[in-house]
Q: What sequence folds into this?
């Protein structure tokens, strides 16, 4: 279907609190790094895709206008995709369709957020409409409720879920410690995770992602050009996006239909029948540890209701059967508009052998994912070292 | 590259609606699906165009819009900002071969938003532009001033655009502003940002526009009058006004690319009608120049020659344009819908009195038109 599309370069900023640069310069840092990685110049880019979270995050609306120079977009066409937390993956899909559709040979895809310039949770609390929903508040409340719903649905013992969530937290923070771009750099003991202060029960401090400044740029090219200019392209093999209804409570979120259907669509395109066996590494969107448990099931990595058992056995640890979030994941780095795209960039680094200290040996097929909205959207992109 | 066609379009009128945003969005979507004869879940993909800042006070517009757009459990995405971009993205999805049908929806309920310029002032960076009060209208006033000074364009010529477009809008059931005005009325209206007069600035409207796209094979099954995408071009300009010549815009690049894709050599001869985004009256004259319809500095005389009148050789904005109807986000899609209706011969009372084979739709936004998109449609 369409033309084959490859990622030929990625660039990330150092994520964290970036008071040292203004917002456009943060974007320049990622764009420059991606162009260096792909060994191309701005004039080689045909089109630009950009996205971030809503303007309330940093107080500038339609910020692609403000960033037009940083995005090297003068005289070029642009698309501005935005789907809440899943924005980063939606950006990747936009770039993919642009090349696959034949309207561009090379596309620069950029996502960013500079969360220390605003109040992310205040923004998040304006996603619920003002009459029935707004009192729910920001992300932790919604996702803690979902964690409880999940544990109740499968009658998962609370201690077991707590144990599995703690292992996910420790593994991710170890990955983040190794990842040169990650925001949170800390090594944790199980005791520290389990006894951390409660944010919204059962979610504790080390179960929650940080609020980061950061940008990510990815360069995509059509088959012929990719083969000509890139030694180790990462081929996009499958993409999927699904969304559910707006009002929370209208359906069960313990069995997360959009995550199931988005990943199944991507597997179908990629010809993957047994994701746990065929995929070598997965970058899952895990702003909360308990959510990763749900994702492991909905993405088809283990049977429903059994994620905690598999996590405790180490199946999804960095050296386990299917390494999940070796980069440290969202739990260590979350500049929201960039986060979904960072998942893809990390997947690309893995299959091209460029991940450095957190490289998973011999990774060939990698899975990337993002989630967004009021428990609403799930998006997936699968890359492979082989066409 | 696969061919893409518009099967059908649906618009809502621009006056304040009593429906809430969700119902307001859903109604034309359902009407469009009924017209095409498809169920919601039979459509392959959905692209919305909405904006977090023009969205009744709710962030992450796609979350709220998702149900009403019809996208539940379907491959979908959203463009923040320009709905012509959403149209382009919908076309790309079909061109890629992944999808055969796409529904593109642009939506806004202006009546629930702050004034447009309260919002456009947020486009400004917080350090240099915002403190000095730059927003779309103040930026436009500067562009108009340069235009008048450099080429001797007269304020009366600009006012004539309002008279023409509001005159056309009288025959368009979907237009927002309906009144017959004279040049003196425009010139005498309040100077809100010199040299711009109140009546030369686009209103703030409610509006949803939905466009149904299909691949060649599918389109031929769904309609006997498909409207084909022939060309597309888009180009960004620099952010800071001082970095550019305000009368030498990226519309030239965007239209050049669209013409070249459509194989158009002489736009004036080969295109039958244009729907262009004139948020401010003088912009229709300036954009006509940049589109290559007349020489630079000749926009005023081109207008006076009667060429762009609804019965003229090159009608511009027979729908009444953005001056008569300005739902900020969907307005680009409205331009496309109007072009499609003209080509199909279904524009009703403002249908042109000639065969329309090729039409040009244009969209612009940002300070003094930082971003331009041009779509060429053909029968």
A:
């Amino acid at each position: 279907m369409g033309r084959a599309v490859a990622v030929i370069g990625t660039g990330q900023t150092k994520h964290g609190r970036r008071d040292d640069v203004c917002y456009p310069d943060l974007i320049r840092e990622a764009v420059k790094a991606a162009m260096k990685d792909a060994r191309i110049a701005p004039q080689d880019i045909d089109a630009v895709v950009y996205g971030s979270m809503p303007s309330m995050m940093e107080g500038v609306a339609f910020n692609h206008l403000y960033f037009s120079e940083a995005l090297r977009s003068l005289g070029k066409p642009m698309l501005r995709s935005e789907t809440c937390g899943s924005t980063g993956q939606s950006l990747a899909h936009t770039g993919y369709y642009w090349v696959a559709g034949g309207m561009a040979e090379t596309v620069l895809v950029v996502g960013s957020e500079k969360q220390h310039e605003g109040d992310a949770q205040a923004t998040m609390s304006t996603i619920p409409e003002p009459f029935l929903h707004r009192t729910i508040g920001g992300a932790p409340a919604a996702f803690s409720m979902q964690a409880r719903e999940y544990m109740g649905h499968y009658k998962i013992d609370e201690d077991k879920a707590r144990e599995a969530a703690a292992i996910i937290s420790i593994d991710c923070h170890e990955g983040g410690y190794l990842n040169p771009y990650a925001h949170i750099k800390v090594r944790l003991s199980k005791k520290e995770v389990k006894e951390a202060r409660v944010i919204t029960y059962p979610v504790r401090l080390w179960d929650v992602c940080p609020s980061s400044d950061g940008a990510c740029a990815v360069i995509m090219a059509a088959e012929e050009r990719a083969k000509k200019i890139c030694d180790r392209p990462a081929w996009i093999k499958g993409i999927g996006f699904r969304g559910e209804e707006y009002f929370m409570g209208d359906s069960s979120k313990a069995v997360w239909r959009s995550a199931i259907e988005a990943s199944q669509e991507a597997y179908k395109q990629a010809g993957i029948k047994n994701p746990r066996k065929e995929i070598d590494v997965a970058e899952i969107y895990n702003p909360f540890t308990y959510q990763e448990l749900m994702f492991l099931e909905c993405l088809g990595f283990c049977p429903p209701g059994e994620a905690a058992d598999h996590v405790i056995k180490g199946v999804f640890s960095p050296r386990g059967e299917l390494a999940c979030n070796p980069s440290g994941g969202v739990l260590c780095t979350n500049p929201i508009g960039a986060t979904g795209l960072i998942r893809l960039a990390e997947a690309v680094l893995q299959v091209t052998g460029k991940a450095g200290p957190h490289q998973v040996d011999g990774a060939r097929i990698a899975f990337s994912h993002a989630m967004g909205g009021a428990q609403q959207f799930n998006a997936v992109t699968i890359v492979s070292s082989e066409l | 590259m696969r061919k893409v066609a518009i099967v059908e379009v649906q618009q809502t009128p621009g006056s304040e609606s009593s429906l809430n945003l969700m119902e307001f969005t859903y109604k034309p979507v359902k009407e469009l699906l009924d017209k095409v004869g498809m169920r919601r879940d039979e459509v392959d993909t959905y692209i919305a165009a909405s904006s977090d800042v023009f969205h009744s006070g709710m962030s992450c517009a796609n979350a709220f819009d998702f149900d009403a757009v019809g996208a539940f459990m379907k491959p979908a995405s959203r463009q923040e900002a320009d709905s012509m971009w959403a149209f382009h993205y919908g076309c790309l999805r079909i061109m890629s071969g992944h999808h055969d049908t796409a529904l593109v929806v642009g939506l806004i309920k202006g009546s629930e938003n702050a004034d447009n310029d309260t919002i456009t002032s947020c486009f400004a960076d917080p350090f240099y532009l915002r403190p000095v009060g730059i927003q779309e209208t103040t930026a436009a006033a500067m562009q108009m001033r340069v235009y008048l000074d450099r080429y001797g364009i007269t304020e009366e010529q600009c006012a004539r655009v309002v008279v023409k477009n509001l005159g056309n809008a009288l025959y368009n059931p979907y237009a927002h502003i309906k009144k017959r005005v004279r040049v003196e009325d425009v010139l005498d209206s309040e100077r809100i940002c010199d040299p711009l007069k109140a009546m030369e600035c686009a209103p703030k409207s409610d509006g949803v526009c939905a466009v149904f796209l299909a691949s060649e094979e599918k389109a031929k099954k769904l309609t006997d009058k498909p409207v084909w995408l022939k060309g597309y071009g888009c180009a960004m300009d620099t952010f800071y006004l001082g970095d550019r010549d305000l009368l030498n815009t990226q519309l030239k690049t965007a239209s050049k690319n669209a013409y070249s894709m459509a194989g158009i050599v002489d736009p004036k001869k080969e295109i039958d009608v244009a729907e262009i985004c004139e948020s401010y009256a003088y912009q229709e004259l300036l954009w006509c120049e940049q589109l290559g319809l007349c020489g630079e500095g000749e926009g005023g005389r081109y207008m006076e020659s009667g060429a762009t009148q609804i019965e003229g050789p090159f009608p511009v904005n027979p729908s009444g344009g953005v001056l008569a109807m300005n739902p900020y986000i969907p307005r680009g899609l409205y331009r496309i819908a109007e072009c499609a209706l003209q080509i199909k011969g279904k524009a009703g009372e403002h249908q042109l009195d000639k065969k329309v084979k090729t039409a040009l739709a244009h969209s612009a936004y940002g300070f003094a038109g930082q971003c331009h998109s041009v779509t060429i449609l053909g029968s």
The two ends of chain B are 18 Å apart (CA to CA).
